[in-house]
Amino acid sequence: MDTQSMVKVLEKDISSDVQIDSSSDNSKSETEQTSDIKFGIGKRLILAFGIVAAMTILVSAISWYNLTKLSNTQTALTEESVPAVK
Question: What are phi and psi of 53, to 5 degrees?
Answer without folding.
Answer: -65, -40
